[in-house]
Amino acid sequence: MLTYAEALATLLKEAHPLETERVGLSSSLGRILAAYVSSPLSLPSFDNAAMDGFAIRAGAGDIPSGTAFTIAGMQAAGDGTTAYPGADACEIATGARVPDGFDTVVPVERCERMGDIVRLTQAEPRGQNIRRAGGDIATGAPALTAGRRIDAAAIMLLAALGIGDVPVARRPRVVIINTGSELHDSGPLPEGGIHDSNGPFLEAMLASWGVDLLARHRVPDTGDAFAHAVREAMHAGVDLIITTGAVSAGRFDFVPSALAALGARECFHKVAIRPGKPILAARFDGGPLVLGLPGNPIAVAVGHRFFLTPVLRAMAGLAPEKPLRVRLAEGHDVRPGLQHFALGRVEADAEGRQVARVQRNQAAYRIVPFTQANTWLTADGSFGEVVDAWPLDPAAAT
């Protein structure tokens, strides 16, 4: 049986970066930049006033209190005037271009105006209250790096630079197939029935990754509905098929044999992990990658977080994720010989230091501890004094 590290390495060999496309800024939120973006202009693009007041041609040294200047005009934000030849002062608004040769802006509240004359009420340092051209970013400087998830801050910068579209990694096309004759939508249940939670969970997590989810199927454990859903996904040209359930060793665990009959090449089946040991990966030559997750909800969550997430990162051209190393507040016994994934909480102790605690009463079928956790904790063989902590929502942390 493969270790987690071996299985992940095998899986990532099958996950290739997707091609690049360009999208408009209004459609770029959440997308992954596929290439470095350099600044096409400087920000600010010109020297401008940091506040309302008077722009002064101060010359050398500070300006003494009581110095008076003749006001040549008014410089408002958006005005195209670049110079007042022969003048030593002009009224100026916040954000307005500082005219050529003017080197200081004095706030209006530290001035006395009498008609066209302005007098300083205190000594003023030369060069103050001017936002210099390029003070934020210079022309040609790196604006955003490849692999950056475009968030609101990135959109603010791109818009300020006048960039209307950006190169991003294509969204992976995905189909989810949940197996189980016992699965039903919300509402009254028949005898022996349960509500499908895996499908909505995966759909929600994939939405935060911004994937192109083409379909989510729920199929019974008998008949050819599974094969039909797989063929339909392949015909649609998907990159990834995610299945849940029917990957273990029972009578109704048909997914491995069904995929083989459809022509899929098995990459691995069963990994030395807990929960999620029966996980399966397969590849259709020239077609999609298949990740078969067990049916228990927390095994699905582990499969998403520690197998599917690395695949999506690889498809987006992102580097491997690195965990946070955190001190464990108290010991936690686990079965030796397995890679363990546990829900936990990272909190501040009495001294304000970050410590991790493992959630109590965990099991592959128990969902409530998942809702109370704020991190995943991982350990190979045993939970020692220091553990790896991973965000619950990897897309939000990218």
Automatic annotation (TrEMBL):
UniProt pathway annotation: Cofactor biosynthesis; molybdopterin biosynthesis
Function: Catalyzes the insertion of molybdate into adenylated molybdopterin with the concomitant release of AMP.
UniProt cross-references to Pfam families, sorted A to Z: MoCF_biosynth, MoeA_N
GO CC annotation: cytosol
Catalytic activity as recorded in UniProt: adenylyl-molybdopterin + molybdate = Mo-molybdopterin + AMP + H(+)
One of the protein's GO biological processes: Mo-molybdopterin cofactor biosynthetic process
Record's keyword annotation contains Metal-binding: yes
Entry EC number(s): 2.10.1.1
PANTHER family per record: GEPHYRIN (PTHR10192:SF5), MOLYBDOPTERIN BIOSYNTHESIS PROTEIN (PTHR10192)
Keywords: Magnesium, Metal-binding, Molybdenum, Molybdenum cofactor biosynthesis, Transferase
Entry cofactors: Mg(2+)
Family per record: Belongs to the MoeA family.
Protein name: Molybdopterin molybdenumtransferase
